[in-house]
């Protein structure tokens, strides 16, 4: 049928992170985006320990295991171990080159929180990233667009699009999502886990992830 030959490939949506551990601040906004855009999948991709940040407390395999457990919340969530499989830190620009090679004609949406967006010009080859993917920026409590550095503010002015325009090309736009904010960070969760070693529920942490954390004795100290 000609329709299947000419159909646009499904968009690729990707949220990278340390996920130390994964929490609902990662999951709830991306599911809202999947509802809005009709995405059938969102890739959640744990990074190999990033060079510019303190090392994660959980191992690579433990962070991946927690992502897999959290993905059981919704069949659209996919644990993606691409960066971990590289066996060394992989920069986002290289990951996106790989995605592009695999899916040359797809729209690629790289999702990040506002905290990451404010620092985006410190990312390796950030301008190239914008040629490889759209950026989808999630609001995050405590991080304001007003703090954007001038060179990125200029890019935003040039590249910002509303949702209906986002898929008219495969890459190059910036979309400021209006998903409900989720006031949580992995840092705050690690502290809470250490301070409440007996808590059977922790808000905004998937119960299966909490059970994994307890059974592997993770996040027991507040250092
Ligand atoms: P940490 O507290 O250890 O820095 P984190 O909670 O920011 O961790 P990461 O794994 O570093 O989690 O985040 C991965 C991506 O998800 C980043 O782009 C980050 O901006 C985004 N993100 C994390 N938490 C939220 C949140 N509550 N709301 C919106 N975006 C978030």
From TrEMBL:
Keyword NAD set for record: yes
EC number: 2.7.7.18
One Pfam family named in its UniProt record: CTP_transf_like
Keyword Lyase among record annotations: no
InterPro entries, A to Z: Cyt_trans-like (IPR004821), NadD/NMNAT (IPR005248), Rossmann-like_a/b/a_fold (IPR014729)
Keywords: ATP-binding, NAD, Nucleotide-binding, Nucleotidyltransferase, Pyridine nucleotide biosynthesis, Transferase
Domain of life: Bacteria
Alphabetical list of Gene3D superfamilies matching this protein: HUPs
GO MF annotations in UniProt: nucleotidyltransferase activity
Domain Cytidyltransferase-like: from-to ranges: 14-191
Pathway linked to the protein: Cofactor biosynthesis; NAD(+) biosynthesis; deamido-NAD(+) from nicotinate D-ribonucleotide: step 1/1
Reaction catalyzed: nicotinate beta-D-ribonucleotide + ATP + H(+) = deamido-NAD(+) + diphosphate
Family that this chain belongs to: Belongs to the NadD family.
Protein task: Catalyzes the reversible adenylation of nicotinate mononucleotide (NaMN) to nicotinic acid adenine dinucleotide (NaAD).
Name of the protein: Probable nicotinate-nucleotide adenylyltransferase
Annotated source species: Aliidiomarina sedimenti
Gene: nadD
């Amino acid at each position: 049928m000609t329709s299947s030959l000419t159909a646009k490939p499904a968009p690729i949506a990707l949220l990278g992170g340390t996920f130390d551990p994964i929490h609902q601040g990662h999951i709830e906004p991306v599911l809202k985006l999947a509802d809005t855009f009709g995405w059938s999948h969102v890739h959640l991709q744990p990074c190999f320990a990033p060079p510019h940040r303190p090392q994660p407390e959980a191992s690579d395999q433990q962070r991946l295991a927690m992502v897999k457990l959290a993905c059981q919340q919704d069949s659209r969530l996919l644990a993606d171990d691409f960066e971990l499989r590289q066996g060394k830190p992989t920069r986002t620009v290289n990951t996106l080159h790989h995605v592009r090679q695999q899916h040359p004609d797809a729209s690629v949406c790289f999702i990040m929180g506002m905290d990451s967006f404010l620092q985006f010009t410190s990312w390796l080859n950030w301008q190239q990233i914008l040629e490889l993917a759209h950026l989808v920026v999630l609001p995050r409590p405590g991080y304001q667009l007003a703090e954007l550095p001038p060179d990125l503010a200029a890019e935003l002015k040039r590249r910002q699009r509303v949702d209906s325009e986002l898929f008219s090309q495969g890459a190059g736009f910036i979309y400021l999502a209006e998903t409900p904010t989720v006031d949580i960070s992995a840092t705050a969760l690690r502290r809470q886990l250490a301070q409440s070693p007996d808590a059977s529920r922790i808000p905004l942490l998937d119960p299966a992830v909490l059970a994994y954390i307890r059974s592997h004795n993770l996040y027991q100290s507040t250092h």
